[in-house]
Amino acid sequence: MLNPKPTVTIITAQPLKGEQKKSITKLLESKLGRDVQVVEQVDADVLGGVLVKIGDQTFDASVAGKLEKIESQLPELQIVSPVELSAQKTQRVENKIKQLFGPSVSINIMLDPNLIGGIQVRFGSQEYDSSIRTKLEKLHLHLAQTMTVES
């Protein structure tokens, strides 16, 4: 029995023109190495480009898909605070961060009551730590070293 043609669904925001559909069909057949059946769907939510479905796989060649990929690769700046920041403080911090790192940086604010006071900021491999907990830990280490040296 012959293998049936695989069905490839092309989803675009607007209907394809005849030549576009022929070009896509030809390209898919050359990539897949066999004849394909192209089914066209129109979805106004597809932003600039196409979605291609082959079986249960979807390949996103839309602008929205590319933006999602780019967004997932942007660094995330993490702010850790011992208490919940007020809306005004949060806005001030976010404005300053976007001024320093650009408007596309993702900001994640987390709570950690163990910090006691102060704040931690992590961006990629960099960390700024002005928490009371860290200052107390450093003081403890310094005192322990001083006691060891004097003994």
Descriptive keywords:
alpha/beta; 40% helix; four-stranded mixed β-sheet; 151 residues; 2 domains; Glutaredoxin; elongated
How would you describe this protein?
By secondary structure, the chain is of the alpha/beta class. It contains 4 helices and 8 strands, in the order E-H-E-E-E-H-E-H-E-E-E-H. It has helices at residues 18-32, 63-73, 87-101, 132-150, and strands spanning 7-12, 37-42, 49-54, 57-62, 76-81, 106-111, 120-123, 126-129. The strands form 2 sheets. A 4-stranded mixed sheet has the order 2-1-3-4. Strands 6-5-7-8 form a 4-stranded mixed sheet, with no helix packed on it. The chain is elongated. The model has no long low-confidence stretch (mean pLDDT 85).
Short summary of the structure?
The chain has 151 residues and is an alpha/beta fold. The chain is 40% helix and 29% strand. The chain has two domains: 7-68, no CATH class; 74-150, Glutaredoxin.
Percent of sequence in beta strands: 25-35%
- Total of DSSP H or I helical runs spanning 4+ residues: 4
As a whole number of angstroms, the C-alpha radius of gyration is 27 Å
In the predicted model, the low-confidence regions spanning at least 5 consecutive residues are none
CATH C-level class of the largest domain is Alpha Beta
Strand and helix order: EHEEEHEHEEEH
> Sheet with the most strands?
4 strands, mixed
- Which word captures the global form? elongated
Mean pLDDT: 85
β-strand number = 8
Instruction: Give the domain tally.
Output: 2
Assign the structural class, choosing from mainly alpha, mainly beta, alpha/beta, alpha+beta, or little secondary structure: alpha/beta
Q: What would CATH call the architecture of the largest domain?
A: 3-Layer(aba) Sandwich
